[in-house]
Specification:
The protein has about 90 residues and is mainly alpha-helical. It contains five helices and no strands. It has one domain: 434 Repressor (Amino-terminal Domain). The radius of gyration is 13 Å and the shape is globular.
Length: about 90
């Protein structure tokens, strides 16, 4: 299963909320606009990898690219896709 733009947006929203951050605070920390963050979270825009890296670092996370065959091993090490419960 490959994540879609909507899945990435849901994951971003879940991490942001788990950290107790507003979109405005995330904007200040990441250097991206609040409008960009809103579009990413709603799945209306496809973030560039550089934007994902900035957003991840702003919440104390890192973007991880994992070869498809290594996903099961990465999941056992603690990497997990975020739920889509928004």
């Amino acid at each position: 299963m490959h994540p879609t733009v909507i899945d990435i947006g849901r994951a971003l929203r879940a991490v942001r909320k788990a950290e107790g951050l507003s979109q405005r605070v995330l904007s200040d920390r990441s250097g991206l606009t609040q409008a960009q963050i809103s579009r990413f979270e709603s799945g209306k825009a496809n973030p560039r990898l550089s934007s994902l890296v900035e957003l991840a670092r702003a919440v104390g996370a890192e973007v991880m690219l994992v070869p498809t065959g290594a996903v099961p091993a990465a999941l056992t090490l603690g990497a997990r896709p975020e739920s889509g419960d928004g």
